[in-house]
Design a protein that fits this description.
This protein is of the alpha/beta class. The protein is built from 21 helices and 14 strands. Keywords: Leucine-rich repeat, Repeat.
């Protein structure tokens, strides 16, 4: 059997006989040309495949209606719109985009769903390959030759500017990818809709996308329903599992990907019993992030630049709930704009002028620090009061430590030698509250930007402490006696960068 006939049989098996009437060819053509024609014919005659199985689309109904309202699709529509769907990684943006694609794709001349744009674009010739896929799906002809992404941009605009198309670009994390795949509304014909999913709203703003939809967490009821579908294959708990199911779903804090992972863990237990589930959930109480959930969430962190990562970890460990002005001032050395980056990436929100980080995200940040090393004294940040006291009393700090926050729920007394901080020469943040120390610190690092110490155990600062980088200096209820070089230099010379807002905290 020759190659062409084998290909014809494959088409019949794959797509049915309804496409065979299109396969007309002359006997004198070379076989390779025939195959190219057959492939092109397949592209032209196959309707867009559904992306969803139709199961477990919990909570998507109302969201679909909201997104369709933003798309504003009408008969004889003459507009071209770009819509960005943004939110935390794992929150269900791709699921929503797939469901939307399935529902409206038939209303367009051509439709294309480009998945995993971020990962694919980073491969060798990745963007060029994405352009080829886009052109092939939209034009109905297999695109094999693009010499550059610049040529691809021109081809997309040339071939699609007269077509009403639906284009979904899933998981886009940089402006360059958008410019190469959907440079502007004028690339596409009237009535077209371009939908972009991203974890970074800043990418949409930079590309001048005008319509936005923020993907938010599921509420308690929808979280429970999604959990039950994944464990019990029904919308409600089995008899006797009501309370434990609600508790299990609650650990995910409304994040669909985390709900599915927890459901999978419990469904795979050797026996389906309430007692076994209770034991498993006790482990979640001790460690809310198992490896799979941590890996899902950590994708959001891994895409940050170095400075943004430092700001993120500081907020996760020390500053969740603090004033945005306070935190921005502290992090001027990294660039205050990184807080805006974290907000755009849905890792942080601002409520009433204060920073708010979701529990799961904060736990993820703290777990990243824990995994730096098993040795407490060599971690970059310490915030658990038992850990801080252990490091200070046993004197095993290191120059890896950048920040310390000691704030026990009840006042404690700490007996120490006062020398532990001397090893922490790169310490930037030192916050001590509700703690009484047996003696003063023998040393304070000159790199400190934040020094907050309630009940500071001395009337003088260490003689070699020259805090020229300090921004926050707060020693309440302490009257310091300045000694040289402080007396000679004067307060403003000693603290050249301190913000006027914090001058009231200086008591001498």
């Amino acid at each position: 059997m020759d190659l062409t006939n084998r290909f014809r049989i494959w088409i019949v098996n794959e797509f049915g006989t309804q496409n065979l009437h299109c396969l007309i060819y002359a006997s004198h053509k070379y076989e390779i040309n025939l195959i190219e024609e057959l492939v092109d014919t397949v592209y032209k005659n196959i309707a867009p495949k559904r992306l969803h199985s139709g199961q477990n689309l919990i909570g998507l109904g109302p969201r679909l209606d909201e997104v369709k309202s933003l798309l504003d699709m009408k008969p004889n529509d003459k507009t071209i719109r770009m819509l960005g769907i943004y939110g935390l990684g794992g929150i269900g943006k791709t699921e929503l985009a797939k469901a939307l694609y399935d529902e409206i794709a038939q209303d367009f001349d051509s439709a294309c769903f480009l998945a995993d744009v971020s990962d694919k674009s980073k491969k060798t010739n990745g963007l060029e390959d994405l352009q080829k896929t886009l052109l092939s799906k939209m034009s109905g002809k297999l695109e094999t030759r693009l010499s550059s992404t610049s040529k691809g941009m021109g081809e997309i605009k040339r071939k699609l500017c007269q077509k009403k198309v639906l284009l979904v670009l899933d998981d886009v994390d940089d402006k360059d990818s958008l410019e190469k795949l959907a440079g502007g509304c004028d690339w596409f014909g009237i009535g077209s809709r371009i939908i972009i999913t991203t974890s970074d709203k800043g990418v949409l703003i930079a590309h001048k996308v005008e319509k936005f939809y923020e993907m938010k967490e599921l509420d308690q009821q929808l979280s429970l329903e999604l959990f039950c579908w994944n464990v019990f294959k029904q919308s409600h708990p089995k008899i006797g599992f009501d309370d434990v199911s609600l508790r299990a779903a609650g650990f995910a804090k409304g994040l669909p990907s985390a709900i599915k992972e927890i459901a999978s863990d419990l469904a795979n237990l050797p026996e389906e019993s309430v007692d076994d589930w209770e034991c498993a959930l006790e482990e979640y109480e001790r460690n809310p992030l198992n490896k799979k959930i941590l890996d899902l969430l950590k994708i959001n962190y891994d895409r940050l630049g170095y400075n943004a990562k430092q700001v993120f970890l500081d907020i996760a460990c020390f500053f969740n709930g603090e004033s945005i002005e306070y935190v921005k001032k502290i992090h001027e050395e990294f660039g205050a704009s990184h807080i805006d980056v974290l907000v755009n990436k849905s890792l942080l929100s601002i409520e009433n002028g204060c920073l708010k980080m979701r529990d799961l995200i904060q736990n993820m940040g703290r777990e990243i620090v824990r995994q730096e090393t098993s040795k407490l004294g060599e971690r970059s940040r310490l915030w658990e009061y038992e850990d801080v006291i252990q490091v200070l009393t046993e004197d095993y700090g290191s120059d890896n430590i950048q920040g310390i926050k000691l704030d026990p729920p009840e006042q404690v007394k700490v007996t120490w030698s006062g020398t532990a901080i001397e090893k922490m020469k790169w310490l930037r943040i030192l916050i001590i509250r509700n703690t009484l120390f047996s003696c003063e610190p023998k040393h304070l690092p000159n790199h400190l930007r934040v020094l907050e110490w309630e009940e500071y155990p001395s009337k003088s600062l260490p003689s070699k402490f020259h805090p020229k980088n300090i921004i926050i200096f707060n020693l309440p209820r302490v009257h310091l006696t300045l000694e040289a070089p402080f007396e000679r230099w004067g307060v403003r010379r000693v603290f050249p960068d301190i913000h006027p807002l914090y001058w009231p905290y200086l008591e001498f």
